[in-house]
Amino acid sequence: MQHRKLDMGTAWTQATAMVGANRDLVGVLAGLFLFLPLFVLLIALLGSNLDFGPQGGEPNPEAIAEQINALLLANWWALLLVGIGQLCAGIAIMALLGDASRPTVREVLARVPRLLLPVLGVQLLVGLVTQLPSLLAGLLPDLIEALLTLVILPVSVYFTVKFSLSAATIVLGGEGNPVQAMRRSWRLTKGNSFRMFAFFAMLVFLGVVIALILSLIVGLVFAALGDRVALFGNAAFYALLLTVFYTLSYALTVAIYRQLSQGPVTEADLFE
């Protein structure tokens, strides 16, 4: 049984080229659905004063986690706004970049309401499949949970990679059934799972390193301009970083889907 081999170098080149060729339209969609909601959420989070304990002492992770959970709960509306924004952004940007007819922003936005529920459904199903084992393990004693984590974590990562093209299958492939979209994503990624994981892991690692370096420089500059400037400046900076990350991930998903969906695809069973 033969499966198309994925060329990640070509996928990356195609992804960046698509974003560059449509930068104005992509910028509008990313700014509307990603940057603005993220900026609002980060203003709310960065504007809060978390208590990290006495200066010079070791912070209490449990106390900090409780503060963060309470903060997120208090700003649930901002989280909801970001979630809806990411959902709409993924649909709109993938529809824009994956359509050879070069649709306008109005035409792309008109597709969002029609695809919203199927994409939301497939994301919920993928999240359930990938996270349910960890949630169930959390109900067990600590020692057993720790042992199971060694098995559950690789399996969750594997499932995440296998179902990574599910939303693209709905947006670009015309599949309206979330379960069938997951099945097709499983088939398309067959034989390329490790290659995709290694590439995604490398991109995330490089992205984190670059973000840390830039945040250190930018943070020092904003801090010298006062607390208010630092608050809005850092929020805008981190929102921009996340917007770029999500935009490139959507473009890369389109490029990978295009490459793997060319030609006949074998109708293997989901777990074959």
Detailed description of the structure:
The chain is an all-alpha fold and 272 residues long. It is built from ten helices and no strands. The chain has helices at residues 8-21, 23-46, 61-74, 76-98, 105-137, 142-162, 166-171, 178-188, 193-223, 227-261. The termini are close together. Residues 263-272 have low confidence and may be disordered.
Short précis:
The protein is mainly alpha-helical and 272 residues long. The chain has helices at residues 8-21, 23-46, 61-74, 76-98, 105-137, 142-162, 166-171, 178-188, 193-223, 227-261.
The SSE string, one letter per element, is: HHHHHHHHHH
What is the chains' assembly state? single chain
The beta-strand count equals 0
Characterize the largest beta sheet: strand count, sense, and whether it forms a barrel: none
> How many whole angstroms does the radius of gyration measure?
20 Å
State the end-to-end CA separation.
11 Å
Q: What characteristic shape results from the CA principal axes? A: globular
Structural class: mainly alpha
Low-confidence stretches: 263-272
Mean pLDDT: 84
How is the topology of this model organized?
Elements: H1 8-21, H2 23-46, H3 61-74, H4 76-98, H5 105-137, H6 142-162, H7 166-171, H8 178-188, H9 193-223, H10 227-261
Helix pairs in contact: 1-10, 2-4, 2-10, 4-5, 4-10, 5-6, 5-8, 6-9, 9-10
